[in-house]
Amino acid sequence: xxxxxxxxxxxxxGWPKLVITYQTSxxxxxxxxxxxxxxxxxxxxxxxxxxxxxxxxxxxxxxxxVPASWQGVEGQYNLGMGIDQEAAVFISGERNGQPKFLCExxxxxxxxxxxxxxxxxxxxxxEYHGTVIGEGTPGTEYTEHEWWTKYSRQIGGGxxxxxxxxxxxxxxxxxxxxxxxxxxxxxxxxxxWDPVARYLPVDGGVEATLVTHQMKARDxxxxxxxxxxxxxxxxxxxxxxxxPGTNGGPRRR
Length: 253
Description:
CATH topology of the domain at 17-139 and 175-213: Acetoacetate decarboxylase-like
Number of helices: 3
Strand content: over 45%
Low-confidence stretches: 1-7
Radius of gyration: 18 Å
Shape: globular
Helix content: under 10%
Distance between the termini: 49 Å
CATH class of the domain at 17-139 and 175-213: Mainly Beta
CATH superfamily of the domain at 17-139 and 175-213: Acetoacetate decarboxylase-like
CATH architecture of the domain at 17-139 and 175-213: Beta Barrel
Mean pLDDT: 93
Strand order of the largest sheet: 1-3-4-5-10-11-12
């Protein structure tokens, strides 16, 4: 087994990513996908909590992704990335359609104990506490396609677009080099700003790992247009995420 790269003493950026997966109920994912991005029949939700160096600083973040395909290519649709670094939020959305928003992240490991929490607008919406129970098998190199959407609605209101919606394909080739399995508890907490508990509730199969990857390549490209006539409900989102919203804020129940 390849050894995990070790950070220098006191260095925090580059920690292993906490990857939590679980099953949600059938039919929950499809309504969250824009027309043209299709569900795959896999009901696995993936929550990733991480700390990586961005613009010379450690960025703590949380991402929530669901399986989806675009033009026959299977990948994952990203519903939102909460991060604690303001500089990267707006430029990422403006340039590439990356669904980032400001979020408070707590993520730590003490011995074999791992804890994480994501809080946005005063609401904690994800908590995980677990214990490392052993090493896993890293697996082989793979390429993941992550789907973002980029668009700009018409200045001054109306139903049109100054930049009509497109799919952004983020193709990342990675080699897992170290994996540790966890046993613990995932809590999805009700939040109007991050409604993962409402739209994607847990229906079993919770698993968690700590994964250290070596990134081999990353390409971000325009993968083609979405139907602007049916995209309207996916353009009105909560903040910079892709959760359904109203005028940038939460929808009323």
